[in-house]
Specification:
The protein is mainly alpha-helical. It has helices at residues 14-21, 25-32, 40-50, 56-59; strands at residues 2-4, 60-62.
């Protein structure tokens, strides 16, 4: 699972990312506010919606699943 990094100081439109990725606005909001983790595919889609040249590691950190 991937968690959005804190303290990036990014400015972007969550509604536009929602439309581009097909994820609900509420889901994007929870992911960006670090209240919800996401899959690698979702992290990739969000990342590319923000910046086409960016990689997942630029915006997300890998977190271990709880056992």
């Amino acid at each position: 699972m991937y968690r959005f990094k804190s303290g990036l100081g990014l400015v972007f439109n969550q509604r536009q990312i929602s439309r581009q990725t097909g994820l609900a606005f509420e889901t994007i909001n929870r992911i960006v506010n670090r209240k919800q983790n996401c899959s690698k595919v979702s992290a990739y889609c969000i990342c590319k919606s923000i910046n086409q040249d960016a990689e997942i590691e630029d915006y997300f950190e890998l977190v271990e699943k709880e056992k």
